[in-house]
């Protein structure tokens, strides 16, 4: 009799427990959707990471204040890849195996996106990069996308700009960061420079950790180029232009989107003045919605947004839009992740493309963005300003 009563008591307790509300984690998962953001929040590209973080935070805040995604809160989870392949693999593994995360916005550095690409593909989760421009970033994976141009386009663009706009300049010296971004951009630039008749007199490599560029600059100074093209990131570029001016080098400096950071201006000081650079977007060329976002960003964070904040703002919104149109509470994680991928892949024509503050984004079969332009800035009085002559307006670029 006692055993029978004990058994009945156990059955009753199990029944009561089974009728209790879902646990806190389960309840929370039904009220929110999680998207990861990967970037260099520490390290020598941390200035980019800070803008990426803020761009994502602003868009998530706006979405949540408007009611969330189909009534669910958008929660961001941040992962610091420190701009290194090793940390990028660790972050990618953490995000890809986290059953609460639906997609990843990131990475920024091309080497980091490449390092994570196989991990994301193996686990079936999207990475949408707002910053990686190396040609091979999206190739070979159905799960990797980006919402900006590639370095083959950017390198060609810079060579054409020098040839067609800065017509007085005939010879170029190149300083390049010896990583995926720096080498890929340098190679694309050099090929087009040769094609349009610019004379590359020398190309000097440097490592990301370099702070003293006297040896490379001495070699370049001996060749006396009209233009020095820097294929690298803002920290090293700022030191290069500063040390070059101190060494009496008067050549025109031209950089790419890797130096598009306010920290370039801070580190280089007055030596930055006159530097040209390419960028995927400029708020000066944006419309009313871009102006609204810039104002909201400044109000929220106390600083003006840059290109990378804008691209991340759009990337976050693209993922949110994909979730809003495809998320199924009854589906498995794998099914929901694949639905996001399939939705992004369906944005393959101008008519189907996503219209954001950085322009129209649609993808080719590799996940690369099609037909997004490049812009040119120039440093004037210690500030980035939109260059008066844009190549996309020239007949030579049509």
> CATH superfamily of the largest domain, please?
Response regulator
What is the H/E string? Answer: HHEHEHEHEEHEHEHEHEHEHHHEEEE
Main beta sheet strand tally, sense and closure: 7 strands, mixed
Strand portion:
15-25%
Question: What is the molecular shape?
Answer: elongated
What is the β-strand count?
Answer: 14
Q: Enumerate how many helices there are, as a single number.
A: 13
Strand order of the largest sheet: 7-6-8-9-10-13-14
Q: What is the radius of gyration?
A: 24 Å
Reported CATH architecture of the largest domain:
3-Layer(aba) Sandwich
Q: Overall mean pLDDT score?
A: 91
Layout: helices, strands, pairs:
Layout: H1 2-18, H2 24-31, E1 32-39, H3 46-65, E2 73-80, H4 85-96, E3 101-105, H5 110-123, E4 127-129, E5 144-146, H6 151-164, E6 171-177, H7 180-196, E7 199-206, H8 214-223, E8 227-231, H9 234-246, E9 252-255, H10 262-268, E10 276-279, H11 288-301, H12 307-326, H13 333-345, E11 354-356, E12 359-361, E13 375-380, E14 383-386
Parallel strand pairs: 1-2, 1-3, 3-4, 4-5, 6-7, 6-8, 8-9, 9-10
Antiparallel strand pairs: 10-13, 11-12, 13-14
Helix pairs in contact: 3-12, 4-5, 6-7, 9-10, 12-13
Walkthrough of the structure:
The chain has 398 residues and is an alpha/beta fold. The protein has two domains: 25-149 and 286-367, Rossmann fold, CATH 3.40.50; 152-279 and 376-397, 3-Layer(aba) Sandwich (Rossmann fold). It is 45% helix and 18% strand. The chain is built from 13 helices and 14 strands. The chain has helices at residues 2-18, 24-31, 46-65, 85-96, 110-123, 151-164, 180-196, 214-223, 234-246, 262-268, 288-301, 307-326, 333-345, and strands at 32-39, 73-80, 101-105, 127-129, 144-146, 171-177, 199-206, 227-231, 252-255, 276-279, 354-356, 359-361, 375-380, 383-386. It has a seven-stranded mixed β-sheet, with helices on both faces. Helix 3 (46-65) links the parallel strand 1 and strand 2. Helix 4 packs parallel to helix 5 (110-123), helix 6 (151-164) packs across helix 7 (180-196) and helix 9 (234-246) packs parallel to helix 10. 49% of the residues are buried.
